[in-house]
Amino acid sequence: MSETIDTIDADQDDVTPEPAAEAGEQKAGGGDDILVQEGDIAGDYLERLLDLLDYDGDIDLDVEAGRAIVSIDGGEDLEKLVGPRGTVLEALQELTRLAVQQETGSRSRLMLDIAGWRADRREELKELGRSTAESVLKSSERVRLQPMSPFERKVVHDAVATVSGVTSESEGEDPKRRVVIFPES
């Protein structure tokens, strides 16, 4: 902030504008630094939310696969923040992303997990994807799964991709978009 004030007070001849290319390079160059900043902003936002709700929980920040990962664990009431089939968790994740965007000015891809629900769900979906793909391989019949969130569909697609001889695609429109698994031609 003091640099901004100094620049405003300086004579016009003393001000050297930063070239746009350099500004973009600085932003892109500090990839993990930006993700850590996103995690910190998200952590602060979620800590305020937990305080407002009077819920206990430990917030953990991490960076994995090019995205900030924020998880909340340890409180008795945290299951309420997950909701049925993760619907409340998805909404909180979107609100947290918007809070980060408001601070940074750029869209965030951060992932939020509460009470280990997303990690547990990931394992369930991997097994569902693998077992369904093996079933399709044996029966040669296509299988349409229940509607899923984008996170859930990605996990299933990744699991199906590990089984040779079958493939998957998504069909339909959200919120009724689903994975279809079928034999390769």
What structural keywords apply?
185 residues; alpha+beta; 6 helices; 3-stranded mixed beta sheet
Question: What report would you give on this structure?
Answer:
α3 packs across α4 and α5 (117-139) packs across α6. With 185 residues, this protein is α+β, with helices and mostly antiparallel strands. The chain is built from six helices and six strands. Strands 1-2-3 form a three-stranded mixed sheet, with helices on both faces. A three-stranded antiparallel sheet has the order 4-6-5. 50% of the residues lie in helices and 19% in strands. The chain is elongated and about 50 Å long.
Task: Chart the SSEs and their pairings.
Blueprint: H1 2-9, H2 20-29, H3 31-53, E1 58-64, E2 67-73, H4 87-104, E3 111-114, H5 117-139, E4 143-147, H6 150-160, E5 166-171, E6 178-183
Parallel strand pairs: 2-3
Antiparallel strand pairs: 1-2, 4-6, 5-6
Helix pairs in contact: 3-4, 5-6
